[in-house]
Amino acid sequence: MSSVELRKVDKHYGSYHALKTVDLKIEKGEFVVMVGPSGCGKSTLLKTIAGLEAINSGQIVINGRDVTREEPGDRGIAMVFQSYALYPHMTVAENMGFGLRMAKRPRTEIEAAVKRAARILRLEEQLDKRPKQLSGGQRQRVAIGRAITRSPEVFLFDEPLSNLDAALRTQMRVELSGLHAQLGSTMIYVTHDQVEAMTMADRIVILNKGRIEQVGSPLELYANPANIFVAGFLGAPRMNFIEAKAVSVEESAVSVAAAGLPALSFGGIDVGGFSAGDTLTIGIRPEALHVEPSNRAMPVFSSRVRLVEQLGRETVLYVDASPLQATNSDSGTGNFTLQLNKVSAIGVGATLQVGFEIGDAYLFGPDGRTLTPRKPVAST
Ligand code: ADP
To answer: Which of 9, 16, 189 to mutate to test the pocket of ligand 1 (most atoms within 8 A of CB)?
Structure first.
């Protein structure tokens, strides 16, 4: 087990600034998931840790040792890629033992390492097969096995499940979490899939345009996103965003006005950095919206149902709530998403009053920063 530290890491590809002063400390044995949209620098960050990409400035420290200028093979890491890159002419056992054979380790040691990895990954029956005789999930397990045999201090995973179908991805998520629990190794995992991040990570690192937006446990980031980017990135369906104006700003309180909503007053606000007249954004998660609320004190807006998705245990309603200005919608400004934790008989075309608790709503400043106070984190 090793800790991994990135100190003010900068990386340029020509004139393109791919990593911008990245500072991050990963503790021994932690499972850290780096997540962000395509092109945000996730793979680049992983490759710099592996030593496959040189950095322009900063330091990479593994277990207290500065490895910035060390070769990949000397860093005590093993990387698992999206493409399994198995040797087709070799058996599963030969593929898994390849790294150790290259390192000229004794045969008995290689056999023992392959056997152990095969047991952990339930590949004992497959050792004599060739990759083409395996399913996609088994092939990815062989690729992971190849990493395990080298007993690395740190595992790096680059979107390892992207090539698998949905059912296998779910299964492999569970297996990888189990593998982490069993090996106790430090694992750094890159994905664009926020569900993988939420389900597997001890801590999530949210990257955007080469910068770290926020680091924290999945539930902490979900309850307390530092800014509108993180709020919109974590959560499916996405948080609803409504354009609003600051009407009056007082000590720690702000009144806002939004077309289609009654006047709203938020307390406990960090009022630095904006003033009356500025454009703010209200955020409400789909599960925090209530249909026809019985609580009369709730702010409500009118809407018309456009689409209903019955997911078995829950129902997702897509509604048109014009004149509200929804700013996260791909298909029109009045579009909102509601998530009900039950089967619902509400049909397309129904008109609904939709309400929310002001304490469930977020307020974001003109620069995207979260202004509302901390919310309680769901306990596990
Ligand atoms: P992600 O893994 O988050 O999708 P990458 O780390 O692969 O993103 O890439 C980050 C950015 O750096 C992208 O805009 C990409 O085009 C650019 N980039 C990556 N590798 C190279 C390279 N070898 N040369 C030039 N630009 C690159």
So the answer is: 16
